[in-house]
Design brief:
By secondary structure, the protein is an alpha/beta fold. Helix content is 36%, strand content 23%. A 5-stranded mixed beta sheet has the order 1-2-3-4-5.
């Protein structure tokens, strides 16, 4: 998918978004992430939001749904290096503390 990359990093699944999360991208991402999460070696899902210049309801919905699925399956969910625009939006909707934020993938603990 040209607007999103999924890569394994140790026991984590890093989902990197290249642009704003549209309805179509959110749907494709949800399916791709769910398929990857079936692998029991995956212990965490990280959304790399460093390159996102704005966050809309589709993106927030995808983040909440993925965190919920991770929790149900005993996996961790993190936001990785979110841009200032993403952090501002999370502050406005009062969801910044709902997500655990990592500054780099190297800080991920097993």
């Amino acid at each position: 998918m040209e607007n999103m990359r999924i890569a394994r990093r140790g026991n984590g699944l890093v989902v990197s978004f290249i642009e704003e999360i549209s309805l179509a991208l959110a749907s494709k991402a949800r399916d791709s992430i769910a398929e990857e999460m079936n692998d029991p070696s995956i212990k965490a899902v990280l959304f790399d939001l460093e390159n996102i210049s704005s966050l809309n309801s589709m993106g927030i919905g995808l983040m909440v749904a993925t965190k919920t699925n991770c929790t149900k399956s005993g996996k961790k969910f993190y936001l990785l290096s979110p841009s200032e625009a993403v952090l501002r939006t999370l502050d406005v909707v009062k969801m910044r503390t709902f997500f655990e934020i990592l500054e780099s993938v190297e800080t991920l603990k097993d």
